């Protein structure tokens, strides 16, 4: 297969695999060749105390790949005990504001605060280059005046790859494949599949159900899917119908999971209207179950890590105990399981 980009500048795992507590943090799992997924932000545009803007980190074979950069991405990397200056490869599912709001902060703050010396690479749909150009213009004062002998301007360079459906990234056994999805006024939009070391993770991004989505997700070990739901009264209103039409409902998610049979299905980019807190989460899970899906299923939470290997392990991450105020600070890895998360 060829890489479908324009540049500017399955292996099925046994069904008895279980969820468990990680004995150590992502670094060990990454070094052992598995895939480690960190849910940094799991919310939609809504402002809630539990969830920030959409952002997912995939680490495998010594590589860190970030998918979307919603609000608070920089802070959520820190809170997930990941050094932000190490994140330089970013994949965008589409260009809606809630998926790129955290990109400027991730681009510039690790450079001047944390000593990042590498430039960024960004993969995204057509229009990504124009968005990046606009971001650089908005931060023109920093670009012109902030570089000095210690802060090199070239570290603020950004290489943009505007992608088309197909394999968009391949390096050292890691392959990222983009699938065009349907997201109404958010088009062009993409789902991403990451294959590495015999395992795979599929991210739907923002979209509604299509046969192409189901085909692309088939055989993935873990599916991270968007979901949108509201009370029955709200779902019948003209204001909500366009939102529900461009995202996955719990019933559509159940259809996707039934077709693909992942070892773990997990919701992220969780859009809830008049369904607050844990009770709203339970209603979404109940609707998915009522639609026929009985496999392993979790609601996503910020600062959650999933290790994919012979088993699929799911954990919450303890908050850092150290301020990250310079390039020489080390964030100790000490994840902690949250017993409030239900295991399938």
List keywords for this structure.
single chain; 344 residues; alpha/beta; Metallo-beta-lactamase, Chain A; nine-stranded mixed beta sheet; seven-stranded mixed beta sheet; 28% strand; globular; disordered N terminus; disordered C terminus
Written description of the protein model:
The chain has 344 residues and is of the alpha/beta class. It has one domain (5-9, 25-316): Metallo-beta-lactamase, Chain A, CATH 3.60.15. It is built from 10 helices and 16 strands. The protein has helices at 26-31, 73-79, 103-114, 128-138, 140-145, 211-217, 232-235, 241-245, 250-260, 277-290, and strands at 5-8, 35-41, 55-60, 63-67, 89-91, 120-124, 158-163, 166-171, 174-181, 189-196, 199-203, 222-230, 264-273, 297-299, 304-308, 312-316. α6 crosses α9 (250-260) and α9 crosses α10 (277-290). Mean pLDDT is 89; it is low at 1-33 and 334-344.
């Amino acid at each position: 297969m060829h890489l479908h980009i324009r540049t500017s500048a399955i292996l099925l795992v046994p069904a008895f695999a279980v969820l468990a507590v990680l004995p150590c943090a992502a670094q060990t799992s990454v070094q052992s060749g598995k895939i480690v997924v960190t849910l940094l932000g799991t919310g939609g545009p809504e402002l809630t105390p539990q969830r920030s803007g959409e952002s997912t980190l995939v680490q495998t074979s010594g590589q860190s790949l970030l998918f979307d950069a919603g609000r608070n991405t920089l802070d959520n990397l820190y809170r997930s005990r990941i050094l932000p200056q190490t994140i330089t490869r970013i994949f965008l599912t589409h260009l809606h504001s809630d998926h790129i709001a955290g990109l400027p902060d991730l681009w510039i703050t690790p450079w001047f605060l944390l000593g990042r010396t590498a430039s960024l690479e960004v993969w995204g749909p057509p229009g990504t280059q124009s968005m990046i150009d606009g971001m650089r213009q908005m931060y023109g004062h920093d670009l012109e005046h902030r570089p000095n002998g210690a802060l090199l301007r070239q570290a603020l360079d950004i290489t943009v790859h505007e992608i088309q459906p197909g394999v968009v990234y391949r390096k050292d056994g890691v392959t990222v494949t983009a699938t065009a999805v349907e997201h109404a006024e958010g088009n062009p939009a993409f789902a991403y599949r990451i294959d590495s070391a015999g395992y795979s993770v599929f991210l739907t991004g923002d979209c509604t159900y299509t046969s192409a989505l189901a085909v692309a997700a088939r055989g993935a070990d873990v599916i991270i899917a968007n979901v949108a739901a509201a009370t029955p009264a709200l779902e019948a209103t003209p204001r909500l119908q366009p939102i529900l039409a461009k995202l996955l409902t719990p019933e559509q998610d159940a259809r996707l999971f039934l077709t693909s049979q992942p070892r773990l299905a997990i919701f992220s980019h969780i859009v809830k209207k008049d369904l607050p807190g844990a009770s709203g989460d339970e209603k979404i899970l109940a609707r998915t179950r009522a639609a026929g899906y009985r496999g392993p299923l979790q609601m996503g939470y910020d600062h959650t890590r999933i290790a994919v290997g012979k088993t699929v392990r799911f954990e919450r991450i303890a908050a850092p105990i150290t301020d990250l105020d310079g390039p020489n600070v080390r964030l100790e890895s000490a994840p902690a399981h949250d017993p409030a998360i239900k295991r399938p």
